[in-house]
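Box 3.1. Reading complex inputs
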Amino acid sequence: MTKYILKRILYIIPVMFGVIVVVFLMKAATPGDPVLELLPATATEEQKDAMREELGLNDPLPIQFVDYVVGIVTRGDLGTSYKTKQPVMTEILQRLPNTLIVAVLAMALSQVIATPLGILAAVKQNTWIDNLIVFFTMVGASLPTFWLALMLIDLFSVRLHLVPSMYNGTVAGWVLPIIVVSFGAISQTAKGVRTNMLEIIRQDYIRTARAKGQKESIVIFKHGFGNTLIPVIAGIGSGLSGQLGGALIVETVFAIPGVGKYVADAVTARNFPAVQGGVIVLAFICTIISILVDVMYTVADPRLKTNLMAPAKKKKSSKAAAANGGA
Amino acid sequence: MSEKNLLSVRDLVVHYETDEAVTEAVNDVSFDIKPGEILGMVGETGAGKTTIGMSIMGLLPKPPAHVISGSIVFEGEELLPTSPEPKKLFDFAIRRKRRHEEKGLERMLRTIRGKKITMMFQDPMTALNPVMYVGDQISEVLKIHENLSDADAVKRACEILEMVGIPANRYKEYPHQFSGGMKQRVVIAIALACKPDLIIADEPTTALDVTIQAQVLAMMKDLQQKLGTAMILITHDFGVVADICDRCVVVYAGEIVESGNLTHIFDNPMHPYTRGLFGSLPNLEVDTERLTPIEGLMPNPMNLLPYCSFFTRCKEKCDDCMKGNPKLVEVEPGHLVRCFVTTAGKEK
Amino acid sequence: MSKINTPAMEKLKKKNKYNESGVSTPGKEAWKRLRRNKTAMAGMLIILFLLAVAVLADVIAPYGYRDQDYSAVMQPPSAAHLFGTDNLGRDIFSRCVYGARYSLPIGVICVLIGLVIGGGLGLVAAYFGGHTDNIIMRIIDVIQAIPSTMLCIALVAILGNGMWQLIVAIAAGSIQGMTKSVRAAIFMVRNNEYVDSSKSIGVSDGKIMLRHLVPNAVGMIVINAVGGVSSNILTISTLSYIGVGLVSPTPEWGAILSEGKTYMTVAPYMVLYPGLMIAITVVAFNLFGNGLRDALDPRMK
């Protein structure tokens, strides 16, 4: 068990290495001279050359890459923002808590609402309750996040003056962003839970439980819900990663100073070290989340746990093989 | 034969209704079981045997299943709703009455299920909840019906595990850690936990290895005798019937085509289908060159003919067979056959 | 013909009276089920309608999408301007109509590209397994680690704004999902005995993949492709909204919305209508996709 967790944690290294390669190649493929962005337009040729030397831009690409990786690993150095001349890492760390607050709270809210909805829809399959929930989840998943955000701002802030339309540091300022993010997440989670629950209530062991004379509600919660935990965990994992990616939109709309807005601003300003840094940090968080999810699987599903604990050196399970293959 | 019936099923008709087709799964099935008796129910896959079992348990998935008519009486109590079904959308009073009755029946059935009637399902591999200890799955049924405290239920569950030949220290293990035969023992343990009056065993040995099959059957027979439980054994294997059953009904296309005690069925099969089944079994006493299978397939239950269902495959048919559906005829006491040809003149 | 008649059977008989009686193939069966699914047919009708709008945009739109009329700036919806006009006096209805020419084709093209590349990778990974599978899936793991919106935005940032740049970015973002789902679908059929028996009689790997594996995964692939179109349309509009990809004066729905957001408090219709167009399109594809899922995977019914 510990061995498995350790393996999964070590798997971060190859994945992040791959991410850094991709991000680095993106920068290398970008036209334009970063020195021109960093120095004022009045800078002399000597100043520019000195700057190039300092940034290592005169070195061949592989050396630059090694420098970049070494910088990240030893000093946590993601480069210098073209715009503010500040280290990218510092700027991102300042903004990260804001992004995490929205993502985690929205995730929690959506799970609390979506899981019962999904179960209810599955249990009442093909009734009006089910149809209503299915319709809601479909519409919810179809609305563009930024549009929903704008419409809610128009309604609750501009017309009703209930909450601030923009981030202003108060608790009320978080309300709309969290609602917007959870709206999409509720739709997806409820749909996923419904699909899984439908499959589970057709299983033989549910029939066995009914044949015991158990109450229908207990059958659903004790035997059905226990078995939906696995997809629910998967939903939390992929939902959080999705929200970290989608953070960009919500943060832009509500002007929340988070990593997403940082990257979005950097993209339009062609501030590449900031874009790279943001992508690397968010990818790192997503990878950690996916590993946490894998570990939680083993807790939720006893079948998996036994397989992992078995010392037998039979065929490697696909997950273990994955961990080996990547390293 | 004056003993009271434990269960009697009369004129049961069950259809599966979907947008695309109506499947006539059970057609006009009647049979009785006396306390402590083992009834074998033999037929091909898809003949409607499991549907009959599920109807008794009140576990048919509705929709699509729809009990059209019939009555199931267990220990003198009717298990099917008797009030009329609403015919039109606006029959509110009828609908309300019917719904009320169904709710009451469901409440009553819950006290019967797992306690007085239990059912074992075909595939032990999937019949147990994969994320629950096997022991807890046994103690669950005890807690529902016997009003036991948690500790007492666990203790009883351990005893029952030992009874089916599983060491009690495996209480806290998950189903995937058990072999197929062991899982089936757990399923049997769940079925026997409350000492039921009737067990419906749906092909309990089909999914098991041949060697394990014999073991499990022997154990079931043994426990059945110890507890004096009646049993409906659903199977497609005459060997199993010969081993442990007292009486036997042969089901074909949702109908009982022949019923009787073992002597009737094995020594004097009357229905061409039953005869066909025996013809396709190897017999040690008679030296045959090759087995004679029944030609053709069972008719599609979505499109049954209004006359004898076996007509197309029958070797003894005559033109009269197309005139209507034959009735079950008692050819000798306790031996009923549904055929125009072989029962001609033997009616009593 | 049956033992006894019930109301349900009578109903069915009436319905089946007009049914064609022919050989039924899995495809025909699925089409039959799809046709019976009202919501799926509604989705399909909306999609067809939007396609017609895109093709006939020149006929339907009362104004050109770049026509500016400074005498009618920021007019609320009226008979002359159904959806109102924007800050430059352009007719928003006309711009929305022309917008159908962007989201739909780009969404479909990106799915096709993603399907060919991602599906191909998934097929190869699942069929050969072992090291091939390992290498492909490790690459996919890396791509998957980067949130897909981020990946698209970063790609557009490098490639610059424009139609083909947008297509490349979105297609790249949809590859990993496609690879994973096709791989999963192929895995399920790969171990069937007919694959082994084909191998044993010397059928080439390529033929086995195309003749035996792909047809079995077609249902899954179609469902994913339709779902892919709707999520791509959302991504296109998101990118345009942020200001990368397609930008004004291109009448892409997200771009129209992005321009309108500045004036939202005084002219909410500048945001409302393009957003509704996006939502309706995505809902249509989702309705159709859900119907397809039910039709191709009847066990869930």
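In summary: The first helix of chain A runs from residue 2 to 10.
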